[in-house]
């Protein structure tokens, strides 16, 4: 029994080598320290890998800039340590390719539309296949920012502005129609009730005015 021990921190795995060859994987906790062994600590908690804005050529030939973030975790610590000097760089490149290929079949308008059904599942599967070779698992790909070409943004702004102006004109027309309807109803009421018309005339006269009411002879 060894008199010395090694403690692997929480949320961490240690890939242990003996005399330069892979020996075993040590989970979190205390383990006996064997002679001739070395260890590489691997963080097992979820991590985020952000992708900078990528220039994507859409199906209609426009350049759209898209950024995304990957949620990753280490699935195979041995492969993570041994297969690549920089496993995250491998996944980053795979994500760039998947983003370009996944969005290339959509038009710029479809990509930029709010709530558009982007092929995130297919992109996640494609990146996950590459990530597995270096010991990583892709939990999710989140498409974040979408920057459309200036001309397309200007055109969309014009559409929104025109729609807002049309709604404003429609509301003004409705208000004018309602006002005219009220005036017509009022005029019809005054025609039916002459006394009410005279009263309305008196009420509308300026303060201090002298009103003379002529009554027709019977």
What do you see in this structure?
There is one protein chain. The chain is of the alpha+beta class and 218 residues long. It has three domains: 5-42, no CATH class; 47-148, Band 7 domain (Tetrahydropterin Synthase, Chain A); 154-203. It has six helices and eight strands; from the N terminus they run βββββββααααβαα. The chain has helices at residues 77-82, 87-103, 108-112, 120-133, 150-192, 194-204; strands spanning 5-8, 12-18, 21-26, 29-32, 37-43, 47-57, 63-74, 136-147. The strands form three sheets. A three-stranded antiparallel sheet has the order 3-2-5. The protein has a three-stranded antiparallel sheet with strand order 6-7-8. It has a two-stranded antiparallel sheet with strand order 1-4. Strand 6 (47-57) and strand 7 (63-74) form a beta hairpin. The N and C termini lie far apart (133 Å). 18% of the residues are buried.
The total beta strand count reads 8
Number of domains: 3
User: Which parts are unreliable, with pLDDT below 50 for 5 consecutive residues or more?
Assistant: none
Briefly note the CATH topology name of the largest domain: Tetrahydropterin Synthase, Chain A
Level of helix content? Answer: 40-55%
Using the coordinates above, name the CATH class of the largest domain. Alpha Beta
- Strands of the largest sheet, in order across it? 3-2-5
In terms of DSSP E residues, the strand content is 25-35%
Number of DSSP helical runs: 6
Strand/helix succession: EEEEEEEHHHHEHH
Question: How big is the Rg?
Answer: 38 Å
- Gross CATH architecture of the largest domain: 2-Layer Sandwich
